[in-house]
């Protein structure tokens, strides 16, 4: 599709790897469709981009820009303590407005005006600013349709007096009756947490995104049909494009954007392993473990007798570098491989991988599902708990590991997940995901509709 150079879309993800990764996949899709794209990161994450020159050469219509998140360079960016979120809302919002104005009055190094904004569903201020400047704006949710709908349902749960006890089962949530608990909700709702920060602030920020021209989701229609139906009554239009990494494979240009350097040496080791024999273990980019938890995982994996590939970030344990170093130095004649970061999509797609022990972030969940790999879920934060519930109880493609586990529990679950009893179920779901992202699938068609709607809205505003 040949589009005018006046079509210039700015993408602005929340500054966390789990948000940036699918946003970049969307950026590549938009570039392939003929749009000019500016990808806006915070300075902190922009500095971590590998090989900008290669990316620029492969995607000449993609430009990177950055803005301060308002925190000092040495400040830890803990996405769950509220400090980063508040700093962005208070400091970055004014900088974001200045940046849009600089583009649109021609003072931004000759870059063309921004004619459309796609912002993270966690932000309200880009919508306010884009509306003020007369720029169309869409919203992208990088977590599931289910989790987003739960945010919209929180005022109803509060009104009904249901948010009292962490293990309390919540009633009346469309599409989730008997499945959602207090602790599955977005934010923190104990008396102590509410006193420390107002979780309704986050909720209200998200509720305001219903004013956008449309909602983009990394999911596919039948995977979350009840929640897509509910969200379609809230947003003007819904575009389900998932799995977005599978959709991207329909296009030739697929440069990789990595916040961490990936260790591809593990792929040669996987080539030497039998089919469906390896357990892949990764806790994502944010979750941290205690030393005890790490050792229970380690002993359970070793005692299972299964070969495993373990991703062990250097910061996975608070002040626990010695424990990590000790494990990294252990050898066992090829029975396991340990890397600091792995090319996860390649690993999950490898024929040797038969199971995935995961934190159940939405990106990891979809990537494992699309690859047909059953999961052991160990959810800790954010949307991970409800993702895990759907993995184990609704889709039945995995097991859920509760806190308080020991090595024998890990050993039993690893052996269970590798016995291939779930192979047929997860393979069927993977085939559906593949079909939906194919050129005849609903996700592909939804993307074409999104491009048409973006261009129509832009041309209406020009």
UniProtKB/TrEMBL annotation:
Associated pathway: Secondary metabolite biosynthesis; terpenoid biosynthesis
Entry EC number(s): 2.4.1.-
Domain of life per record: Eukaryota
UniProt signal peptide: none
InterPro entries recorded: UDP_glucos_trans (IPR002213), UDP_glycos_trans_CS (IPR035595)
CDD domains: GT1_Gtf-like
GO molecular function, one term: quercetin 7-O-glucosyltransferase activity
Keywords associated with the record: Glycosyltransferase, Transferase
One Pfam family matching this protein: UDPGT
Gene3D superfamilies on file: Glycogen Phosphorylase B
Family as reported in the entry's similarity comment: Belongs to the UDP-glycosyltransferase family.
Protein name (Swiss-Prot/TrEMBL): Glycosyltransferase
């Amino acid at each position: 599709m040949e589009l005018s150079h006046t079509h210039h879309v700015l993408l602005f993800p929340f500054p966390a790897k789990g948000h940036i990764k699918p946003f970049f996949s969307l950026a590549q899709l938009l570039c392939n469709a003929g749009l000019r794209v500016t990808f806006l990161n915070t300075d902190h994450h922009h500095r971590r981009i590998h090989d900008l020159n290669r990316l620029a050469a492969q995607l000449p219509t993609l430009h990177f820009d950055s803005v301060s998140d308002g925190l000092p360079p040495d400040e830890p960016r803990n996405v769950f303590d509220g400090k980063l979120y508040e700093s962005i809302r208070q400091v970055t919002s004014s900088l974001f407005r200045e940046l849009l104005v600089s583009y649109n009055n021609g003072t931004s190094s000759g870059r063309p005006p921004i004619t459309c904004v796609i912002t993270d569903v966690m932000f309200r201020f880009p919508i306010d600013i884009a509306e003020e400047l007369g720029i169309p704006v869409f919203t992208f949710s990088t977590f599931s349709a289910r989790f987003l709908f739960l945010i919209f349902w929180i005022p109803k749960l509060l009104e009904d007096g249901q948010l009292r006890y962490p293990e309390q089962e919540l009633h009346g949530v469309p599409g989730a009756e008997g499945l959602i608990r207090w602790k599955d909700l977005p934010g923190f709702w104990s008396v102590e947490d509410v006193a420390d920060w107002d979780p309704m602030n986050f909720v209200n920020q998200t509720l305001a995104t219903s004013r956008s021209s449309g909602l983009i989701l990394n999911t596919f229609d039948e995977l979350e049909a009840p929640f897509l139906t509910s969200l379609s009554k809230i947003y003007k239009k819904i575009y389900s494009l998932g799995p977005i990494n599978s959709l991207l494979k329909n296009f030739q240009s697929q440069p990789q954007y990595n916040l961490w350097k990936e260790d591809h040496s593990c792929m040669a080791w996987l080539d030497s392993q039998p089919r469906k024999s390896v357990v892949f273990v990764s806790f994502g980019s944010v979750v941290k473990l205690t030393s005890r938890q790490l050792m229970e995982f380690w002993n359970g994996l070793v005692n299972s007798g299964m070969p495993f590939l373990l991703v062990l970030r250097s910061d996975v344990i608070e002040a626990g570098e010695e424990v990590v170093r000790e494990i990294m130095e252990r050898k066992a004649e090829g029975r396991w491989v340990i890397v600091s970061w792995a090319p996860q999509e390649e690993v999950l797609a490898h024929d040797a991988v038969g199971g995935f022990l995961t934190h159940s972030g939405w990106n990891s969940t979809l990537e494992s599902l699309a690859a047909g790999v059953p999961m052991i879920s160990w959810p800790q934060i954010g949307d991970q708990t409800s993702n895990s519930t759907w993995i184990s109880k609704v889709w039945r493609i995995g097991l859920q590991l509760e806190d308080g586990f020991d090595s024998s529990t890990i050993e039993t679950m690893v052996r269970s997940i590798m016995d291939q009893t779930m192979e047929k179920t997860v393979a069927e779901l993977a085939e559906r995901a593949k079909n939906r992202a194919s050129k005849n699938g609903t996700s592909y068609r939804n993307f074409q509709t999104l491009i048409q709607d973006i261009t129509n809205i832009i041309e209406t505003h020009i």
